[in-house]
Write a structure and sequence with these properties.
Blueprint: H1 7-17, E1 24-25, H2 26-32, H3 39-47, E2 58-59, H4 77-84, E3 89-90, E4 93-94, H5 96-99, H6 103-106
Parallel strand pairs: 1-2
Antiparallel strand pairs: 3-4
Helix pairs in contact: 2-3
Amino acid sequence: MAPKRSAWAEVYEIVRQIPAGKVMNYGAIAKLLSRPLPARAVGWAIADCPDDVPWHRVVNVRGICSTDNVEGAAVGRQRRRLEAEGVAFVSGHVDMTTHLWDPEDEWE
């Protein structure tokens, strides 16, 4: 029997699938996991992710870049990365109607 992957490994696998120009929120990622994990724990996983994980594509449920509130983080870094991928912001929030990624759409 194969060993079970950690919850954080599952988070990273999901985040790696988010296409450039799209975002997901912490809670949506938590719902896709094979085991219960609160949205806040998804945030902890993202804060400690490997370099190949596009962490900047994960925002809070309102479309706000949460990393601006992290001590020591460069303010605006996440937004600049998203804008470089074509993500639009409206009143400081990601335009979620345009840029929210739903993996279910990929399987239809």
